[in-house]
Queue: 2 jobs
Job 1
Amino acid sequence: MTTTNWIKVIFYTLVLLIGLRLSAQKQYAISGYITDDDTGETLIGATVQLKGTSRGTISNVYGFYSLTLPEGTHTLWISYAGFIKQEVPITLKENLELSVNMKPNAEVLEEVLVTAEREDRNVTDTNLGLTTVTAKSIAAIPAIGEADLIRAIKLLPGVQTTSETSSGFSVRGGSPDQNLILLDEAIVYNPSHLLGFFSTFNNDAIKNVQLYKGNMPVKYGGRLSSVLDVRMKEGNNQQISGNGGISLIAARATVEAPIVKDKGSIILSGRRTYADLMARTVRDGAVDQSKLFFYDLNAKANYTLGKKDRLFVSSYSGLDVLEFDDDLDISFKWGNNTVTTRWNHVFSPRLFANTSFIYSKYKYQLGAGDNDFRFTWASTLQDYTAKMDFDYFLNTKNNITFGVSSIYHQIDPGTVSVTQTGLPEETLKISQANSLEHAIYMGNEQKISDKLSLNYGLRGALFQNIGPGVEYRYDQSFVRTDSINRKSGDVYNSYFRFDPRFAATYQLNDVSSVKGSFVRVHQFLQLASNSVGGTPLDVWFQSSPTVRPQVSDQVSVGYFRNLFGHKIETSLEAYYRWIDNQIDFKDHAALLLNEELENELRVGTAWAYGLELLIRKPTGRFNGWASFTWSAAKRRIPLVNEGRTYRSSYERPINVSLVGSYKIDERLSFNATWVYYSGLPFTTPTGRLNYGNLIIPSYTERNGSRMPNYHRMDIGVTLQQKKNSTSRLKGEWVFSLYNAYGRKNPNIITFGMDEDTNNRQTQAVQYVIFRWVPTIAYNFRF
Amino acid sequence: MKNINSIFLIIFTLFGCEEVIDWPVASDEIRLVVEGRITNELKTHQIKLTETADYFNPAAPTPVEGATVIVFDGDNNIPFVESSPGVYQSSPFAGEVGRTYDLSIRLASPLAKETDFTASSTMLLPASLDSMSAVNDIYNEDDPEEIPVVFTRLAFWGVGNLDQENSYMAEVYVNDQLETDTINNVIVFGDDFIGEEFTDFAFYDIDEPSATGGDSITLVMHVVENEFVDFYDQLLTESELRDPFGLSSPPANVSTNISGSALGYFYVSSVDTVHAFVQDDLQ
């Protein structure tokens, strides 16, 4: 079907819907916010339901809900995992504003790992491939010292780690740059700290995380594989509270306080690592002089102006510093900064709007040199975004979302300067690249019957290359034919693309359903990288007259079944993805500081398919999940691998994660994870030749070999301090052991000459980083 | 820029543990490797044929014996006769500028299922060199923490070919011994030069200086086709330790101008030479 036909289909469907409404009886809307009574935090995904029926809605990402019901007397059930379910009788004669404060259920013994907001939510929800995670559940997974969001989501089916030392993750065979990572709506371009050992997300500042594995709703776009939507806490608007912790690796502290009780609050959260101090005790020499740390700071404030308006300002800033003095004196700094300002406005009980202005920056600077010679390399990527998103709760059957957004991307790929004693400074600047990415979307979540729900929509994206910049043109054999200097503000290339989305859920009975979806996404910005290790030296580049937008179509189906009265949730999902205009780098491509990077690309197709099984016990003394993934990801690109099909660098055919937590009593809990996955494909020499007295490796196939299979167990024990009735202070000790049985999982394997012998011996060398990493942490809350 | 790659490896080794491992390499199909050059010097020219080997096999490469090697210069066939195992030599002749030389090889028994291979290269105009200076110098002399390195600094003057698409490769002889005897030591550049001092080159050896005062230095400047430089750059990349973090290029076979499954390179070059005696300024 052509895109024009798609628009027609969507348009007529929407017209049809609105038409249907006219025949309905007199209806009114109940709307408001669902909040945590203790802290005033809004609750995302709380269920508001007509008692004894499946009619209902859930609160949106701002905690707002709206439910339209016929005139009369009703009883509402309002529920959220870990909170006491409320029954609210209402009489509807007109639109009703009803905000609900939920009381945390102190009696709940169990920790909820992955939240199920409603016990049958996983069966009824139309979002195939959506997982919601809370900060609390992230903290319950054993970690290397710091609870880490990205390490936690890598334990989910279909999400694979790219490398132990990388915050990059691969969703359904896609590359890490195909994940849209949002922190309070700001795009985070590099979610890595400490070269990827930790992510940029401080768990203390996180409220809620949603991960869409390719089935993203229409409000998201621009990345082919997934959306990781991270929302920061708003801060306690009831009383001053806080938490913090000290571990062998980092110290962190968070303070929350009301600005005006019930009206507004502020939260400040910071952490800093001291891994370099630790390393000094282990090694000597160069490390003595080294610095290796990161810090990050999250700050957020919100204020409620009457019943209809709420303002938020949030910001993140983080910096990594790595310095050491060996033969070369090296200094390396990188970090993200984001600022988001938002305005929530309730236009009517049914129409909720959010307007955001967002700034995001990723920057790095590398310097190396000695007394006589010094070079520095700096690069920046900046985004300026304006967007409006609307939730229109049309009636109990239809929730419409629509909105617009514009992003101005500004990429400074790199400026290198070299200073040498006695010589003038030399500077090389790679031309700036700028672009505009606009989107307009509309979608509807529609309940056709008690059994059938649909979720469909259309997103239109306009991508424009804009000067100042240099446009390069190449002929068929990749020889440059022209280079044109584009003036500031000159729009010299545009791509207009449509992303249709469709999902359906058919409920077979109370405990099982089948779901299916089709998703198309376009991507206009991508990362130049040809391996999985990841460094902070990111080079993002954009679609251009030469580089056409990458496009992915994904079809997925799933069977969802709850067992033992919703105590056990199971799901089996299958997917197939096609990617067109898939890019990869040609043989011997030069990625570093290359003005004409786009000419190093080759374009072809990619496809991936897989099966994902998840068995989950979300509640109880013992809870956890088991995830099994079988998948494949291939590419075929003319002029790469001699045109033959080869494995994607992110293909892990087998991936197993077991996550469990057992609460022995109110104070003591034990948790463990075990992961097993196939090694990633990489290219290894298969032979060697001599030329000019040098030994040169020869190869048969790109990504023809695999790293050894990876497996690891982590264990942790959490001991709560005895409760002291007079004090609000609660403390806990966390003991964890990463890689408990000390398997040597190589992070990288290199091939080269044995430098210690002169007998022309070649060798393979593996580097292993983490074996038995114990951590002790003390966390407190008040 | 390659140093950036090694920076990451250094960082990695600081915090990780490094270990030589046994890596199972599936036996690859054996392929032909060609290493041949014809210049405009009047001498016997040489084409070497060897086989590829398993990656971890430290033995010297197996020569390919009994092949028929012929170079056609547009008018005549020039036979190359096997003088020692795998080494094929011509009778003395000088290549001529403007001629295209077509190499054809027929193997006695097939490698990677092929017996016939061809390659072709054209001889371009030579550069003209005027003079050279060679001065010994010490690097790191003032830094007490570093080992001082004695090296010979070369500077030469001459004129390149401004109207011709070509690249340059310089080989250096010390007292008639080839100093740049492994290919990563030769000096390759693509830019033309003219008139005054072009640039200075240094070659050094930590244990002993390559050349001492009074030694004779000869620089042989080859003019080659640009494709040779692509080959040369890839050769260097592949011979060096690769950054595993995604910044260096994807590993792949070094490009070749030999047909079929063979690897290596056959090229012709026109040369000009310049001499100097080393001045020792170390006192």
Job 2
Amino acid sequence: MFELLWQGIEGMMAAKYFVPLVVGTLAGIVGGALPGVTITMTIIVVLPFTFGLDPLQGLAAMTGVYVGGSAGGLVTAVLLGLPGTPSAIATTFDGHPMARRGEPGRAIWLGIWASFFGGMIGGLFLIGATGPLARIALEFGPWEFFSLFVFALSMVAGLVEGTLLKGLISGALGLVVTILGNDPVMGRERLTLGLDVLSGGIPFLPVLIGVFAFAQIMSEVERPGAASRMREGIDAAVKLTASHLKVLWEIVSRPVMLLWTSIIGVVIGVLPAIGGSAASVMAYDQAKKFSRHPERFGQGAPEGIIASEASNNANVGGSLVTIMAFGIPGDAVTAVMLGALTIHGIQSGPLFISQNPQLAYGMFAAYLIAQVVMVVLLAVLARWMLRVVTVPKSVLFPVVLVLCTVGAWALSNAMSGVWILFIFGIFGYAMVKFGFPLAPFILGVILGDQIEINLLRAVMTDSDPWLFLTRPISGGLLLASVLSFAAAIWQHQRAQRKTAAGGGGADF
Amino acid sequence: MKLSRDGWGGLAVLAASLLLFWLTLGLKDNPLVPFGPGFYPRIVLGLTILLSLGLVFADLKGKKTESKPEKRNYALVALQFGVFGLYCGALPLLGFRVATVLYVAAASALLDPPRDARGWLRVAVLAVVTSLATYYIFERYLQVLMPRGRWTGF
């Protein structure tokens, strides 16, 4: 394992891979720093640029985006009090007060180094756990895979914000998209509605790009004054110097908190579609609960910054484990990476690491090197990030949508991809306006074919449907699905009771 | 018995699911395999029908709260979608370069209308640079063949 990892690191240092990695990390940091532009949107923009690259170059660039984006959000979170990405929300709680108190350099560097350490802890888990988890998954039959995918979908539907019913409908709508076009077992056309564009099925990348890009951009467009430049509160002359030794000591002198909050990030990353924002808020909450001085939180406590940043960067490692070991995207970013792998003819899942060791260890190496690149780039560019956020949305949005169009077109060099992008863009925006969460929908679109294939394989192998329940792993996963529903229902009812007790009406 | 946003959303999903479910009834089974192409779609659509019915009933039964609507510029959203739709239609006719110049100029000008000649110049530069830079990067360096226009020939 270490030999392969070392080879991967050596290979990644070659200009051929190092340049895409650095460019990807830079794109991630810039995208992460821009309020209103998420890591998902950044990776969607970077995706078409990877089509002409070899798979490892493309994956290096995307890994860089993911790592850079997870850390980039902290710059605006600390200096402007505006989280560049949702995963930097908890960083604003203490980062911004510390910066306003006259210690912006300390706040930024606490965040950068905590991101580095959290990312490295996530990396250890990624490298150590992917192989063993993939070996477990290799023992899976179609029953277990079916149950695993159902579990992933049920968890996402239950854990997203909003009502459980809407989460479930959103996931079911994702599955509906996969039944249009053709039957994946016999390849026969079905439910094409007489449209040629549907005859081969609906490719998931234009759907994903359309749903996420339009939902986000149009949600910004509808806000009055959204196109204007962000200038208020920006002090371009701010000094970001700090004693690195002091900052590093502040972090490593709290090893238990650093480790615990990183573990929270990793575990949340492994669970599908919960995301870095939940990880950072949960880690912040834990750090506050275990602190001897919880009253200092919210007023510039270093623990708050460390917990949030360590957790949201460790989250990246966890998300990558899920995609590499099981082929299930942990979030929208890994869903795009899954799509990029598919474009290059590589199947992610339990066989990925054994069939493509160079690629897998190259990706591990890219992840580790990206952590160092991220620190260096932020050291050089943190101040410039403040200028980047002044780019007007009237410049940014049309350019992003052009790149989305290129991505959808380049998948098959056909207009069908562009039309799918447009139609699902409208659909995604409508979903947001009707309050349906997007994450279960996307997971449904990605897993739909696999759920159908494994269901039919299982039933064709043995027609006894009880096997789904009596095979231990399959039964356990289905039980976990039921428990996740029960937990979601309990959580929603508790929230409703709280709202009712507070005198407000519940909005189902 | 007034429906809220959830109820209307549920009804829309219900209508689409019922239509697709009805279409699955016309799918013919294959004698070689125990389950035809309609087996799984019927399960999925059945589930969607049940869930959307649940949402409609929950909405009818639930207590509704009147929240003050936030000020939103939906006209601009509709215009942006419209311009993008035109862009999709124009790509095979005008080709990537011309269609992209027009799209970026229109979308940017709608988002932040230029107030003077300098503003229009900025929009024009953005449109031309975006189009040409994207074209050259993808076509020349990443070997992605961009759409050619039937009307323009390039």
